[in-house]
């Protein structure tokens, strides 16, 4: 929970970004926008399929193999000849199909972005259900004030502001009480400091602005929740269970996080919560740019 004085925490300076329009494209909308942009750029680099020799060759092989399999099915060739030819045709079909799938299917970057989108949508569904009927308002896919730094969720309610991130996908390797890895990404020395920085940056920024009836002095709380499916395959010594705490930073499932927010002390009156939501909504605009007209 970030409640101390601001300006003395040695935060990294952020050059103010120029104002730009944004729009709400839904949960993880800016990530989906980026995925679609990568897809368009990749299709543009490949050019028209008919002008690509590799594509034309793969399609020709695929069609030829399909025709050859049709001939074999008619039984026009002896069995001892049909078997090896059939194996070659199947190999050619599989190879050309794989080549076309790799060439025109989603790239590694696109698949990673799609996994992020799915994780945030899954977590949003569970968290919204847990917060239903409460005075907490969940904002998704936002930029921190005067920056291009995106955060998946910001929850505003009677206990203050929570900056909520998604725990990176596992499997997880616990090295020391403060050293944890998810896959090859260091959590304790890379991911966790970034989450703390987000909360402190938002706290410092909002403390300098306010409304006629509200001067925000905190708290801003960094939180994290699970969103990715549990890992199916794990190397020796690794676990599919995420750490429930890294140093003093708790990790919760979305439903449990929603319950935790509702259990926090209510320090803001209902009308102040409304003002605080307006304040955050104004200074943390949606991350996506406006769709091209």
Name a few traits of the molecule.
293 residues, alpha+beta, 6-stranded mixed sheet, 3-stranded antiparallel sheet, 7 helices
Give a short summary of the structure.
The chain has 293 residues and is α+β, with helices and mostly antiparallel strands.
Describe this structure in words.
This protein has 293 residues and is of the alpha+beta class. It has 2 domains: 52-104; 116-283, no CATH class. The chain is built from 7 helices and 9 strands; from the N terminus they run ααααββββββαβββαα. It has helices at 29-46, 53-73, 79-104, 108-131, 187-206, 254-263, 270-283, and strands at 137-143, 150-157, 160-166, 172-176, 179-182, 185-186, 220-225, 245-246, 249-252. The protein has a 6-stranded mixed beta sheet with strand order 1-2-3-7-9-8, sandwiched between helices. Strands 4-5-6 form a 3-stranded antiparallel beta sheet. Strand 8 and strand 9 form a beta hairpin. It is elongated, with a radius of gyration of 26 Å. Mean pLDDT is 81; it is low at 1-8.
Distance between the termini: 42 Å
Shape: elongated
Radius of gyration: 26 Å
Largest sheet: 6 strands, mixed
Number of strands: 9
Domain module tally: 2
Low-pLDDT segments: 1-8
How many DSSP helices? 7
Strand ordering within the main sheet? 1-2-3-7-9-8
Structural class: alpha+beta
Classify the helix fraction into a percent range.
40-55%
Global mean pLDDT:
81
List the helices and strands in order.
HHHHEEEEEEHEEEHH
Strand share of the residues? 15-25%
